[in-house]
């Protein structure tokens, strides 16, 4: 591409303008198709969903009756939806920090120059690439009344400790309304920590080694180095991981649907907002209502992301 | 500039090639007949409504019929394939293209319905039949039945009534059925109980015997609980189905009776036993008796062949009458199906005596017609067909009622409060809501 001589301003010679103009046009033409698809399939569908949410919608014949904000009112007043929201929020509040902490811990470990570093990275990341349905079914077996976890704690003689906490020897961890959601939190903390480990690893690589050398010269201990230097410098990493984690947490569906069935059994303990939406759409065939639930979820996630940007976004400062 | 524009053109062509949907148009399965033409009496495209009296000649109809459904086990897929083998002998001019749907059948079908590209003949589970009929997804069959003279009088009423819409039209023909009966370990239970009181005393005697974790495996929902409620004189709805009857004293007492089975340790849920369903609990030797349908047999012979069990009818309760629940699935034609004539011919075969005999003789399901012979070993289950009441599909929004009941019931047994009051209240609220929509 031709370059202007430095210091030249104002109008360029005609041939140069034409060259730049057609180069720009080619660029726009190249991105036009993906941009069009993005606008239609990603942005357009959001507006379409908002449109659908204002109607009672028949999936075969389209709009039936205009309801305005009626679907939204019904959703906000439905106790099952309220339970779904509280489950999703509880899940986000507990699972996000837990998994971030585990991910960061693993990242710091595998960032050391130890033997088998690559193996450990692969091993910790493996659950993230395995099928979530398969892992959930495996987990259901592990935590079932006569499954692996209960058998192991019986063999290790830990049952009296669990009895003190009120858990019998054959506790149905995922089928009991009090422990089901926490079981899913632990499952997902295990499977997703590998992904967060990768994100944090990328951030860790970007911290200059000179900082650590300076800390070593000043006599900082390992914990002080981590807490006062590594942790604050990871702020962009924290922001990114937290944003992705909150978005994912509020959209929990697979594990809840597999472990609790489409009804979020037992007794709505595993009912999440997306599972509620799925039921409204495919079980109750109430697509307008499901679209309204989707728009509400979109608003919640968008607000959460904006708040996080305000609080945590931006470069780390000393 | 030329290379840039060339690249852009190639990229655009590739993009659109990748984005184009794979065609779902019917592909004749190796048949010689032309796919598009059809018989002189009827036109190939939607003929709904106008029926030229007596002009139905199924043998002259040509074309393809796309058949779809789920396949819950390899045995079931095999049984249907065998059944379809008998079709070309009677109707050689129609090709059947069997395209089963894997995964979540209902969700996949709804996406097909929304895009107006539905198979020609497909399963409709009683569970969602009322909603699908209500929302206009299915083609009414009355004109076809009248034109063709297909005899629908032999279908058991408990199955056939499900697929009649609110407008009185028929939207599907029951392809088979299943009833709930009592499956018990014949080595642990010498005489099968015939009444609910006998059931309770037999169960109490079995408590703690051998490796049993519980005498009975029971579901905390209406999918089985409703049979017990009916047996003990309770009702969900009033006689004409227009109002709730779950809050009457008789119904509440029946619900409490069922809950007391859990309270007294007579029954446990499959989940608390560590099994996926009660059939698995029976096969693993965790319980001595459970209440399931004919689908238990292939599961037991396939996975737990050494377990000795037998069938008995549901014990009668305080109502004195034998009662059980039935579940059924229909063959239906979609409102947007392309080859409706061909689909109806296939339907008359599959839901007729010949096709249904072939389909049910392997024991996959029970006949929904009284003129089809009972499959071997299914006498108890078929007996139930005569007096069974529908276990699903008898009201719009029943899944919400089931959910309300099960949530409240589970809360009671897990919270160990065992009070039928909240369960009845929650169920009544759900019934009222469903009936008002």
Q: How many distinct domains of chain A? A: 2
Strand order across the largest sheet of chain A: 1-2
Label the structural class of chain A: mainly alpha
Class of the largest domain in chain A in CATH? Mainly Alpha
Mean pLDDT metric of chain A: 90
Q: Specify which chain pair forms the largest interface.
A: A-B, 30 and 39 residues
Low-confidence stretches of chain B: 21-53
Output the CATH homologous superfamily of the largest domain in chain B: Periplasmic binding protein-like II
What's the CATH architecture name of the largest domain in chain B? Answer: 3-Layer(aba) Sandwich
Q: How would you state the average pLDDT of chain B, rounded?
A: 88
Give me the secondary-structure topology.
The complex is a heterodimer of chains A (318) and B (437).
Chain A: H1 14-52, E1 55-58, E2 62-66, H2 70-77, H3 79-110, H4 117-129, H5 132-142, H6 148-155, H7 159-164, H8 180-205, H9 209-217, H10 222-233, H11 235-250, H12 254-260, H13 273-283, H14 287-312
Antiparallel strand pairs in A: 1-2
Chain B: H1 2-19, E1 63-68, H2 74-85, H3 87-90, E2 94-98, H4 105-114, E3 121-125, H5 129-134, H6 142-148, H7 157-160, E4 173-179, E5 181-185, H8 196-206, E6 216-217, H9 222-231, H10 249-263, E7 267-268, H11 270-273, H12 278-283, E8 289-292, H13 296-303, E9 309-312, E10 325-333, H14 340-350, H15 353-360, H16 379-387, E11 389-390, H17 398-414, H18 420-436
Parallel strand pairs in B: 1-2, 1-3, 6-7, 6-8, 10-11
Antiparallel strand pairs in B: 3-10, 4-10, 5-8, 5-9
Helix pairs in contact in B: 2-15, 9-10, 10-18, 17-18
Concise overview:
The complex is a heterodimer of chains A (318) and B (437). With 318 residues, chain A is an all-alpha fold. Chain A has 14 helices and two strands.
């Amino acid at each position: 591409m031709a370059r202007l001589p430095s210091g030249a301003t104002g109008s360029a010679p005609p041939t140069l303008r034409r060259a730049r103009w057609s180069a720009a046009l080619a660029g726009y033409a190249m991105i036009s198709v993906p941009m069009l698809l993005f606008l239609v399939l990603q942005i357009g569908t959001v507006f379409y969903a908002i449109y659908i949410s204002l109607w009672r919608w028949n999936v075969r014949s389209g709009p039936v009756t205009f309801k305005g904000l009626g679907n939204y009112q019904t959703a906000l007043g439905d106790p099952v939806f309220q339970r779904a929201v509280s489950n999703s929020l509880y899940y986000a509040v507990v699972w996000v920090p837990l998994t971030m902490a585990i991910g960061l811990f693993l990242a710091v470990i595998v960032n050391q120059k130890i033997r088998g570093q690559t193996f450990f990275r692969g091993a910790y990341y493996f659950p993230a690439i395995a099928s979530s349905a398969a892992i959930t079914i495996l987990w259901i077996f592990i935590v079932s009344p006569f499954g692996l976890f209960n058998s192991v704690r019986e063999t290790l003689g830990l049952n009296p400790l669990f009895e003190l906490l009120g858990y019998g020897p054959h506790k149905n961890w995922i089928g009991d309304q009090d422990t089901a959601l926490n079981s899913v939190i632990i499952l997902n903390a295990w499977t997703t920590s590998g992904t967060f480990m990768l994100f944090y690893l990328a951030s860790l690589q970007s911290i200059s080694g000179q900082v650590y050398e300076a800390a070593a010269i000043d006599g900082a201990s390992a914990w002080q180095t981590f807490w006062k230097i590594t942790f604050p410098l990871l702020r962009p990493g924290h922001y990114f991981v937290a944003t992705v984690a909150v978005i994912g947490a509020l959209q929990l569906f697979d594990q809840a649907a597999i472990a609790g069935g489409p009804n979020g059994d037992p007794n709505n303990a595993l009912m999440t907002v997306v599972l509620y939406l799925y039921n409204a759409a495919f079980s109750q065939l109430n697509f307008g209502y499901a679209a309204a639930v989707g728009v509400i979820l979109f608003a919640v996630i968008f607000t959460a992301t904006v708040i996080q940007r305000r609080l945590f976004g931006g470069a780390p400062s000393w | 500039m030329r290379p840039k524009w060339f690249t852009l053109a190639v990229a655009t062509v590739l993009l659109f090639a990748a984005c184009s949907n794979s065609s779902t148009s019917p592909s004749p399965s190796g048949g010689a007949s032309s796919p598009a033409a059809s018989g002189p009496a009827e036109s190939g495209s939607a003929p709904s409504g106008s029926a030229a009296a007596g002009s139905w000649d199924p043998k002259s109809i040509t074309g393809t019929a796309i058949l779809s459904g789920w396949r819950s086990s390899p045995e079931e897929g095999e049984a249907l394939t065998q059944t379809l083998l008998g079709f070309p002998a009677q109707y050689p001019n129609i090709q059947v293209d069997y395209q089963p749907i894997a995964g979540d059948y209902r969700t996949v079908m709804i996406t097909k319905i929304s895009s107006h590209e539905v198979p020609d003949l497909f399963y409709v589970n009683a569970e969602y039949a009322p909603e699908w009929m209500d929302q206009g997804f299915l083609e009414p069959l009355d004109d076809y039945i009248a034109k063709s003279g297909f005899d629908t009088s032999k279908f058991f009423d408990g199955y056939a009534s499900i697929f009649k819409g609110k407008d009185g039209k028929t939207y599907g023909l029951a392809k088979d059925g299943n009833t709930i009966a009592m499956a018990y370990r014949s080595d642990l239970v010498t005489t099968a109980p015939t009444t609910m009181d006998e059931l309770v005393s037999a169960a109490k005697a079995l408590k703690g015997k051998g490796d049993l974790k519980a005498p009975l495996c029971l579901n905390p929902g209406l999918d089985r609980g409703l049979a017990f409620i009916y047996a003990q004189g309770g009702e969900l709805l009033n006689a004409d189905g227009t109002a709730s009857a779950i809050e009457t004293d008789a119904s509440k007492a029946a619900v409490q009776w069922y809950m007391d089975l859990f309270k007294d340790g007579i029954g446990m849920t499959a989940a608390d036993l560590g099994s996926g369903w009660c059939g698995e609990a029976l096969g693993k030797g965790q319980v001595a008796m459970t209440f399931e349908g004919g689908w238990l047999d292939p599961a037991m012979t396939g996975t737990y062949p050494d377990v000795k069990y037998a069938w008995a009818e549901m014990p009668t309760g305080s109502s004195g009458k034998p009662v059980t629940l039935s579940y059924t699935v229909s063959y239906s034609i979609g409102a947007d199906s392309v080859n409706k004539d061909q689909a109806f011919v296939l339907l008359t075969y599959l839901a007729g005596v010949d096709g249904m005999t072939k389909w049910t003789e392997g024991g996959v399901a029970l006949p929904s017609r009284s003129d089809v012979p009972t499959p071997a070993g299914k006498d108890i289950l078929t007996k139930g067909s005569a007096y069974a009441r529908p276990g699903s599909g008898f009201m719009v929004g029943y899944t919400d009622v089931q959910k309300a009941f099960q949530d409240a019931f589970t809360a009671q047994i897990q919270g160990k409060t065992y009070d039928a009051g909240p369960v009845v209240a929650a169920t009544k609220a759900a019934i009222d809501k469903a009936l008002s929509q």
